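#struct-pred

JT: dropping the chains for the assembly here, can someone run the whole complex?
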Amino acid sequence: MAITEEAPPGAAAPQQAAPGTGKRPDQEGWHLSSPLALTLLLVVVVVLQGPIRGALSTPVMQSWMTVFVAVVVQALPFLVLGVLLSAAIAVFVPPSFFARALPSRPALAVPVAGMAGAVLPGCECASVPVAGALVRRGVTPAAAIAFLLSAPAINPIVLTATAVAFPRDPEMVVGRFVASLLVACAMGWLWQRLGRTDWLRPPAHAGHEGQSKGEAFWGSVRHDMMHAGGFLVLGAMAAATLKAVAPESWLRTAADNPVFSVLALAVLAVVLSICSEADAFVAASLTQFSLTAKLAFLVVGPMIDLKLFAMQAGTFGRGFALRFAPATFVLAIAGAVLTGAVLL
Amino acid sequence: MNRQAQAAVLFLTGAALLHAGFTDLYLRYVKAGLRPLLLAAGVVLIAAALATAWYEWKRARRSKGEAATAKAAEAADVTDIADAHEHVHREPRISWLLVLPLFALILVAPPALGSYSAMRTGTALQQPYGYAKLPAGDPVPVSLVDYAGRAVYDHGRSLGGRSVRITGFVAVDRTGAPYLVRMALNCCAADAQPVKVGLTGKIPPVLQPDAWLEVTGRYTTERTRDPVNHGPIPFLQVTAAKPVPTPHDPYDETWNN
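RK: done, full complex below.
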């Protein structure tokens, strides 16, 4: 409608805040406020690109931007894969399938779901939307959590990469598999005992009733992409900031003490937010650290990092993520140390 | 953000991925092997954008039809329907963050990691599994990482006294000592780590950090330790150096194979 189209940006914003003021009954469903804002934003940035580039030309800003863009570009294909799988689960797989595939007792469903994580090839960005879709499809949250945590760490691609990165220590591959599965199941059982469903807030999807399968599928893809994508960007910004600003020399002082070295690499895994397919190579290059500390790095990284925390908060709610992240962090370290003591 | 804007953001993000994948731009941020996945993701995002726009257009026609049949009803009822639609359309504000990587990729296109990151990170030289036979020629072209591995772990024996030609960018440490560096990458720039070679001998008088150089020189026993992680840094006795453009793939990806 012409009035809305010609509205200045100042007028567009309040309209967004208070929709449906009764002036636009026959607007054909085209609410132009946010496209207009988007267009204006694009125009402003293109006009001001000279000054913006100038402000971003310092070395620290350039390195920040490069890492930020790299994390997003690297994660997007895996996020797209996860979003497509999640939409396929939501639209084409009936809930009865999961009822039959998983044991009815949650305590048994947890390890089965944890093992099922081995079949999702990809890194951690893909598993968050898939786990969200599983919960919406009626899978018990404890099993979905086990899947969420195990999938990025124990799939064949990641284990192969680990074997390549540690050619002289094949027990690292076994250690990674065992410790990750152990922690994933422990978190599932912990949720089953202590978890409360009101902590979990699965996103309010528009109902699929009265929609064709295609419409429901693409609607789910769009919704998950916009949602998880926004949180991915937030996490990438945090990771790039810490990578560009925090000095790496403190790692050297931590490497000498066995307790600090495990903690230091666990914190580093959270901060760096590296894709689980590449983290083994980074761990292998941290030569001054013990194998157990490296195992902690490999177990913590795919389960919880800044990017994942942001995405989990977006998919399951902030109340969930704030309780889930510290518990995962502590259990992952414990699992890695335990496995390291037995295997390495 | 309503669905039209979401379709636009999805479309632009997909187009940006395709643009990065079809040019060499993506090589500044991720490994070469990720290219097919980037292109596929770009196509899926564009398809999602088109599907969103298509279903939104159909929905608009449908609700127009409903509104026409309900013309006799009061205007307030129709507004209620519009309100309900509006509520379903909204996505959280966090979605707006997706425009940031879009701007960064299309408008700024930040360069590959350079000397700033290299000097803050310890050298990541790993012991090679073996030393492949060098091609013929003097000077022999080798990768910087290959030279560093042979110099440190083989004491230059497999170089057979020949001079080598390596390519990397210049980095200067706090004391002003020059290094030739190549960032080695496993997956994306977030995990890129430098491999450093110290320069000695006939060094060019003016060295600009981040400038790419093709350096010819001979193995020397001189070596030092990286102040960041105490990793070994070999040296090269430079005989000639010339500036070269940034290579097609700025990172060293030999560890991926």
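JT: nice. Confidence is low (pLDDT under 50) at residues 74-89 of chain B. The helical segments of chain B are 3-22, 35-69, 75-89, 99-108, 115-120, 144-153.
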